[in-house]
Amino acid sequence: MTHYPINLDLTGKKAVVVGGGHVASRRIAFLLQSNACVSVVSPDVSNAINQFIENRQVTWYRKNFEPEDIIDAFIVIAATNDKDVNRQIADSAGSRQLVNVVSQPELGNFEVPAVLKRGKLTISVSTNGASPSLAKKIRDNLSDRFDESYDDYLEFLFTCRKKIQESSLPIEDKKTILNKLLDPVYQNPQIQDEILASFEAFIEDY
Ligand SMILES: C[C@@]1(CC(=O)O)C2=NC(=C\c3[nH]c(c(CCC(=O)O)c3CC(=O)O)Cc3[nH]c(c(CC(=O)O)c3CCC(=O)O)/C=C3\N/C(=C\2)[C@@H](CCC(=O)O)[C@]3(C)CC(=O)O)/[C@H]1CCC(=O)O
Ligand SMILES: NC(=O)c1ccc[n+]([C@@H]2O[C@H](COP(=O)([O-])OP(=O)(O)OC[C@H]3O[C@@H](n4cnc5c(N)ncnc54)[C@H](O)[C@@H]3O)[C@@H](O)[C@H]2O)c1
């Protein structure tokens, strides 16, 4: 079996995380970064989750799981340390809900990759459950190669691409310029500023 990789827009979508431990904390942090509307159902929560609750970023239902907790959720994370409860969560979900089961991934319909974010750049690494530790190691190795300067570089490329698309250049020239901008020289912030300051002159050179 092989999985279909996608990047979901979760803005304003209801996410319910069941369990308040280590894995739940990781899931919640990422769901919040994705602008989901997050609730947690658990008798206790980690310090990290408690901080989110105090900041009113997450709603806490301090209780054990019951099937009605996930009725209107778009995305459900079964992250308790009780396999029977995780199975019950998966069984309670409807066929149109996204469900991730952290202890028995085959009971859900998606798995979570190891992720490196640099602004608009997302690098996701998955081993389809063969070795989550390898996914994490590869992600960590890539973090030096794609350092924080990529945040600004991606913004620069995004701005340039919009300008190039709006221009009346022939499609082949547009592609040529877009590819030129991938030369490492354009990762230099000073050069990026210079190009943006006189963009018309820059595209005329090509
Ligand atoms: C990548 C990452 C993303 C994240 O979770 O955020 C992730 N697991 C991470 C780490 C990790 N997980 C585990 C260890 C201990 C070592 C080990 O057991 O190997 C470590 C290492 C560590 O913690 O250092 C234990 C573990 N994991 C799963 C099971 C159940 C099973 O395999 O059946 C068990 C046994 C539990 C038990 O003992 O009961 C299952 C899954 N874990 C996945 C993702 C999905 C497949 C991804 C893939 O293969 O690429 C999948 C299938 C389902 C899912 O979770 O969606 C995250 C690192 C990212 C980060 O740190 O940012
Ligand atoms: N997918 C992964 O990346 C990964 C990594 C490590 C472990 N795991 C698996 O995930 C499970 C959870 O790991 P963890 O480190 O977060 O565990 P944990 O012990 O830190 O947290 C478990 C949480 O589940 C809550 N809980 C227990 N029963 C509940 C119920 N009936 N209703 C609601 N909440 C309930 C507990 O109160 C606790 O907050 C592990 O048991 C293991 O099987 C998965």
TrEMBL record:
Pathway: Porphyrin-containing compound metabolism; siroheme biosynthesis; sirohydrochlorin from precorrin-2: step 1/1. Signal peptide: none annotated. Keywords: NAD, Oxidoreductase, Porphyrin biosynthesis. The keyword Oxidoreductase applies. It holds the Pfam family NAD_binding_7. It comes from the Bacteria. This is precorrin-2 dehydrogenase. It catalyses: precorrin-2 + NAD(+) = sirohydrochlorin + NADH + 2 H(+). The keyword Transferase does not apply. Residues 118-143 form the Siroheme synthase central domain. InterPro entries: Met8-like, NAD(P)-bd_dom_sf, SirC_C, Sirohaem_synthase_central, Sirohaem_synthase_N. Its EC number is 1.3.1.76. It is an enzyme of class 1 (oxidoreductase).
